[in-house]
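Hi R.,

As promised on Friday, here is the backbone we talked about, encoded as structure tokens. Could you run it through your design pipeline when you get a chance and send me back a sequence?
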């Protein structure tokens, strides 16, 4: 019995060592994202009379400073569908990278977040929620994430062709954190 138990215990211990996902963002991607967000934060709100009547898909990013069991920032790809006709918002945030406090990408987090919310006269109010994982000291840890997204439809190079807003929230679980940042998107 001992001969079987020892190899099984060793195999179980080796299987518990997880390797972080390689980051999919570079330091220059991080810098470009922050520059784009800063630029879009200065754009004028779209007049209510000029809002589209159908669906517009906005592609962009979510970036936030994080503190707690993880520190630094997160940066992820966002797709937000705004249906102006029925005042609904949905989408996803995926490809979320953990950025160290020095601005260097550390690892791509596992999981993605679902966006669900409403649009009213160009004002966006939504939640992004889901489970994210990180690898810390060889162990995969999970967090239940809930972010509040509040923003506006803005005019960039055209009418209602961009969105910008704030994102705040937290993750609770095997690793916990608070997040405070922004989101932006450009119409496809």
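Update: got your reply. Pasting your designed sequence below so it's all in one thread:
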């Amino acid at each position: 019995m001992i001969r079987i138990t020892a190899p099984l215990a060793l195999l179980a211990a080796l299987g518990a060592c997880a390797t972080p996902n390689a980051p999919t963002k570079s330091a220059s991607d991080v810098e470009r994202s922050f520059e784009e967000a800063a630029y879009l934060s200065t754009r004028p709100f779209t007049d209510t009379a000029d809002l589209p009547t159908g669906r517009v898909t906005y592609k962009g990013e979510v970036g936030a400073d994080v503190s707690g069991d993880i520190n630094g920032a997160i940066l992820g790809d966002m797709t937000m569908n705004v249906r102006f006709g029925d005042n609904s918002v949905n989408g996803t945030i995926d490809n979320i990278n953990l950025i160290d406090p020095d601005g260097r990408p550390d690892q791509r987090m596992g999981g993605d977040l679902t966006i669900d919310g409403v649009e009213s006269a160009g004002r966006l109010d939504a939640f992004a929620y889901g489970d994210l994982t990180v690898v810390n000291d060889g162990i995969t840890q999970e967090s239940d994430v809930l972010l509040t997204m509040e923003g506006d439809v803005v005019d960039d190079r055209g009418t209602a062709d961009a969105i910008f807003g704030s994102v705040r929230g937290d993750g609770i679980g095997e690793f916990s954190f608070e997040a405070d940042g922004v989101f932006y998107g450009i119409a496809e």
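One thing I noticed while checking it: DSSP finds two helices and nine strands in the chain.

Thanks again,
M.
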